[in-house]
Amino acid sequence: MQDFFYYCSSPIEWKERGYLLRYFFYFCEKKTAKCNEYMGTEFRTICSIEKSMKGLTYTDQILSLGSCFAEHIGNKLDTAFFQVDINPFGVLYNPVSILNSIALLVEGKQFTEADIFEYHSLWHSFSHSNLFSDRSPEIFLNKINSRLNKATELFQKTGFLLITFGTAWVFEERKSGSVVSNCHKLPSTFFTRRRLSVEEIVQDYTEMISKLQSLFPTLYFIFSVSPIRHWKDGAHENNLSKSILHLAIDQLQKQFSNVLYFPAYEIQLDELRDYRFYASDMFHPSDVAVDYIWQRFSETYFDSSTLKIMNELMQLSSDLTHRPLHPESEAFLKFQTQLEQKIVSLKNKYPFLIDRI
Known about the structure:
Rossmann fold; globular; 11 helices; 5-stranded parallel β-sheet; 9 strands
């Protein structure tokens, strides 16, 4: 610093160099502040989600219904050893199909041959995914009724109903006028395709939620809109459809205190904007995106105690799915012994695991 002024040839030059030095320090200070500001900034928009006052615990029975995303969250819950039943009718995309499925669970309906049909050598039901379809009507009926019986029994104990809407578009069978859950690739002439209105969805779900409140007073609903885009109708139609679903859920939230909303759609589209968060088809969330949304779901609906238990059990789940390169090795045999001991220890620590592992 002294040398900086020592070589000044005159007081005027000394003064000029003083101005220069002060400007230099001022510039450094501003740059440092700006750098610190950038370092403390998230280079993305974050969806703010309030912690739910009503949380999920390991004692709750959960039913997850709806689109593919309902299966993503349901599978995460299952992997973490929660009590969860996932889509007993298969994937459901529209609000009416989900509503009809809930009605079947409340009724405890048994399907007969009058409820099924044959097409391309397979027997199907308009209430079920084609994953249930079979060449034999007897086997098919046994499959769907067995699954329905199990789901109906669990539904009586359900504390949380997770509902994921995928689209506001529905297919109505021309013959019966009923909305179908799956068209099973029948000719388009068999159906009328139309878009639901906000009013229709709100009216139907208001009746359903009111009925379930009287039957199960402690039941809570967690609604979400699937982030998976339905692109066959184009970008504009997809956005209109998703908007209808959002508006309907918003009205239901305002009417019922036991209706909650989880912003899976907003997280995917607003936080995870980059295409690296999408699968190869560019429409479905990638595994990384699903993991992140699951993390946000956990932060919203699990308290610290539940999160602590979940972290322990997720490690157990990882151990159980371990596939060794050399299953006959001494190291793997030792790993199996330690795993069995770990399971016994966790069952003693958490008795609810006894029927889940």
